[in-house]
Amino acid sequence: MKIFKALILTFLTFPLSASADSPDIDGNGFNDILGISIAGGKNKKFTWNYVPAGPGTLAVSTKIKEFGKGNDIPVPGRYSNPNMTDPAFVRLTDEGLEWRIIPQNGDTVVIQFGDKNDSVYGGADIDGDGYDDLLIRNKSGLFTFRRTGFGPNLNTVSFSQKIGKAKDQNFVTDIDNDGQDEICRVAKKPGTNKKRTTCFDFFSKHKVFNANAGKKANGTPKPLGANLLGFIREKGKGANKKTTVRVQELQGKYVSKTSFDGHKNIVTTAPAQLAAKNGTVLEVFDAFSKQKSSQTAPDVDDVYDEYNVGSFKVSGGKGGGAGNTQCTSTTSWGNGSVWKPISEGDGKLVILDNFGANSSKAYVINQNGNVLGTGNYVGKTNGGRPTFRFSKSGSSFGSNIIAVFQSSSSNVCRNVANGGTRYD
Ligand SMILES: [Ca+2]
Ligand SMILES: [Ca+2]
Ligand SMILES: [Ca+2]
User: Fold this and answer.
1) CATH classification of 20-311 is 2.120.10, yes or no?
2) How far is Cα 248 from Cα 118, in angstroms, rounded to an integer?
3) If you measure from the C-alpha of residue 181 to the centroid of ligand 2, how many angstroms do you get, rounded to a whole number?
4) In this structure, which topology does domain 329-418 adopt according to CATH?
5) 306 by DSSP, 3-state: which?
6) Centre of ligand 3 from the C-alpha of residue 100, in Å
7) When you count CB atoms within 10 A of the terminal residue's CB, does the N or C end of the chain come out lower?
């Protein structure tokens, strides 16, 4: 009886969304582990690979194909079939963003949708027909989606909604399990220090979910299924690099935390199961039992699931000898990070990275990626935050600029709407 009850509860808790964002490459109903090698170099092609699961399959790394290159952003999703994952990526071209999808018939479908400064969200089913739609967000928080034309509704007219504010941390998930993805934001409640998680129906902008996020909801939010949200942070450098995940209930209650060696993609293999590649194995953490186990990992650089948020916001690398200033992620100010337009010391701009960060270079760039100023690293100050001083005040950099904090492995960007305003 007890077992039976547990089964019913499981079905009630996760109706339709049992796969979270876990890929099913071969469509046999079992989630597979998807990996992609993004081995640098402008013309070096990506290799897609997976480890199948389920009866009658061998858990061995199996090549899918070569698809994508250079700075393309992988966005695998269920575009052409609700039960199978299609390889897909987004490429930046002179005309804007180009989505390339390999549907189940093996063709390559190319869709122009979005601009250089937009963020792309993979695997979002906004209209709830089971087929993933294309979703982008511009820098002021305007979300736009369009259907691919694979689903029952062939209308591919795009539809926009302003949801939240530019500095929100967004995630997209089916928060109420009705088959339709909502747009969610984690943001401070105005005038307070309290963070809230709020999710909106795309079409009506009706609040579907609204709860305290808790003070420690720091990092990049990622839906984990099973009513859980992970907050992912990359820490350390060199041999001490690690990726930490704090797991909370959507309602803000702490559940567990874990860390993985290196700066790695975190994927879900099933609801409440999060994983990262460690050498030849995939380490899987169960957020409820807090146990880690190992599985065979795809024989490529890193693992991916159907949830990937990326951006070409900064095309970078021009001028100033700054090297590549392309953002590897964009995050909000706070958690110790500060943009202080006029420092007490010399009246010029000083910026601090967040607690625990290990950046050693910082730049101010414009929306085209041109370097406007290079920070002078003065060490870790004020509780161990990497600190950079500039040769002029914040306001002299103008508006709509970007601060780039560069470490050995990443360029973390933070938007600055107005250079003369303090952000923290
Ligand atoms: Ca499968
Ligand atoms: Ca859809
Ligand atoms: Ca929903």
Assistant:
1) yes
2) 28
3) 9
4) Immunoglobulin-like (2.60.40)
5) coil
6) 26
7) N
